[in-house]
Amino acid sequence: MDGHVRDGYRRQAEEWLAQDPDPETREELRALLDDEAALAERFGAKLEFGTAGLRGELGAGPNRMNRVTVMRAAAGLAAVLTSEDAAERFERPGNGASVVIGYDARHKSDVFAEDSAAVLAGAGVTVHLMPRPLPTPVLAYAVRFLGADAGVMVTASHNPPHDNGYKVYWGDGAQIIPPLDAEISRSIDAVGRIDELPRGMEWNALDDGIVEAYLHALSRLPLGTARDVSTAYTPLHGVGGEVLARAFAWNGFAPPDVVAEQSRPDPDFPTVAFPNPEEPGAMDLALDLGKGHDLVIANDPDADRCAVAVGGRMLTGDEVGGLLAEHVLRHTSGADRLVVTTIVSSSLLGRIAAAHGVRYAESLTGFKWIMKAGTVHDRLVYGYEEALGYCVGGDDGVPVRDKDGIGAALAVAALAAETKAEGRTLLDLLDDQARRYGLHATAQLSVRVADLSLITDAMDRLRATPPDRLGGRTVTDVDDLSAGLGGLPPTNGLRFRLSGGGRVVVRPSGTEPKLKCYLEVVEPVTGSVADARTTADAALAALRDDLSGVLGL
Hints:
Blueprint: H1 3-19, H2 23-30, H3 36-43, E1 54-57, H4 67-81, H5 86-89, E2 98-103, H6 109-122, E3 126-129, H7 136-145, E4 150-154, E5 163-170, H8 180-189, E6 204-205, H9 209-218, E7 231-234, H10 240-250, E8 257-258, H11 284-289, E9 295-299, E10 306-310, E11 313-314, H12 317-330, E12 337-342, H13 348-356, E13 359-363, H14 367-370, E14 379-385, E15 389-392, H15 405-420, H16 426-437, E16 439-448, H17 453-464, E17 469-470, E18 473-480, E19 494-498, E20 503-508, E21 514-523, H18 529-551
Parallel strand pairs: 2-3, 2-4, 3-6, 7-8, 7-9, 12-13, 12-14
Antiparallel strand pairs: 1-5, 4-5, 9-10, 10-11, 14-15, 16-21, 17-18, 18-19, 19-20, 20-21
Helix pairs in contact: 1-3, 4-6, 4-8, 7-9, 9-10, 10-15, 12-13, 12-15
């Protein structure tokens, strides 16, 4: 390493030590001052503030999540909210900016939340702080309920235990999108030393009333009247357990049987390799407990996602997405209803929308985009993405403008009870949909890398020489999503349309070092649904094998 560069990192580290209020990260960094590689990794880059806010590994330095990084983020947000033109831009009645802050039970989440409250209050912003670690959808709901200009949620969702994150919501209750993220990022870059920031010590400490308001809003979801359903549940060591139990009780459902080993918040997630219900093994304890139950339900650690199993079989996000869509549309009315999914989710929702005579839209990946789909004349009643995220609404729209694992769990329980009263299960409903719309089978291929340049190289190769065939099917069209097709904002992705109605979408993950590939085939059901599933499974396996070879990772 060049001596000037090495000395520069050492100097940055010493400046960081001088302002860092956290004794743990100061001690960590002092031990690394003579480790050139460690300093280069921590000070040669920084966590980028994007449309998901910040997310990264805990530790010292700008390329880590820590108190300095969080306080700079809060100061940058405060600068945008209190800028000279803020009142006009945000149509504020003149009583100043306000922010509501929530946090989960990860390591340092409570500390990061209080640091944010202090910095925002010191900048003259009215701060509402959640009373305890609570699910992300409670925070998203609270932004609109309290009439706040913005919201902050300290969480890394389903990331590994050594990570944390910082999500920003705007006054509409949805996550921020460009160009607002870039504006906040520029404001963060302009922040000086954090030990020179004014810190307020007064904010509004919310009480359980905010949780009750959220639960009351969920009670207006299309839940029907059937309540006979037995459920096994896991919050995966996260913050969803108490709120889900209360939601079930509020709406007349029997309390779920909870996986004891995973029932309480634990930031170390000791029973799972990854606290994500999509990951292999994460649902094993819940599936074991769920034997003999009608349903198995899991939330991820911040309870914005919901996983479902029936009869020992995990349902895919697209399967649950299709089931909940028809449930919502059966219990709502009006031609202005809008249902939305993402370009990487199943095309089934479009078929369902057409059959029910409602409006349909596709968005980029992520709920921040789902919430922006449609027009002012549309009434969003349902949105979902294949990664176990669902936003369920009723005739008065959606109560939470983000994915909500608690509301989705309620709706799934209601649908399962309704179906059980007819002597059937959710698996029977899936077969009904396959006969009605064709079997839409989906799968994923995710490749985790240590070197992000490998993902860039793979995307460049695919753009330069796209395959003519995948899985024995002809590639009929190639859509480069970086061109902003169909009115969508540009994004780094490729979509390969296949003969027979299938498709493959390839994109880098926005939150993890992964290249993600989303596969779909559509099989007509001319005989039994089981035969169609066997054919579809073989087709997906062939697609996965071919794509693995094409990617070369």
